[in-house]
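U., I forgot to send this yesterday:
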Amino acid sequence: MRDDLLTLPSSAPDGPSSGEHVRDLYRRGVRCATLDDPVSLRSPTARDLRALDFVRNATGRGLLVRWHLRAGRRADPALTARHLTHLQPPVSLDGGRSVERLAEWRSRFYVGRCMWRRGPGFVQIRDRREGVLQRFDLVQPAYVQAVTSLEEQRADGVDPEVMAALRAEHLVLDLGGQDWWAPYRHDRWPVPSMVL
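Result:
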C-alpha cells in the first residue's frame, strides 16, 4: 500500500478536479493519502473546500485519507455530529467535546452513508446520516444538472429553488457562506449493492 503526502493548492483552475485526482492516485496504486494541512471550517478558503472535496471523493473511491479538521469552538454541532459523518473520520478534531465528537464520528462512519449515483436520465441519492434511509430519486433535468454542477463545486448556474431544496435536505451545506455538495459518488461497491 502506497502512502502519499499531499499538498493541495489553494486554487487550481487548470488542474484536475479532486475526483480526477483521487482516481489518478488510485490507478497509480495509492491506497492511503495524508493531507499535509488541516482543513479549516472556521472561515474556509478555496484550499479548505478543495481538501474537503478530496476527502469526499476519496471516501467514495475507497482511498484512505489521514486528515485533520479545525471546525472551531463556535461551529454548528450538527456539522460534525451528523452532516459530515459520511466522510472518513479525521485524525483530529478541535473544539468543545472534540474527543467525544470524534469517537462518535468514528463509530457512526461506514462507506455508503451519504452517496449518489447516476442512471439514465436520473440521479439517486441515498442518505443515512440521520440514522434512517432517505432516498431521493431526481428525474427533473434541473435537479440532475444541479448535481453535476455541485459535484464540481460550481453552484453559479443552479436554479435557486433547486438549491433551496437541496439545502433543506442538508445535501448542500453552508460552509462559511459557501455552498458545498456533501454526498460522494460511489465508485466502488465494498459490499453487495442491495445492502446499500
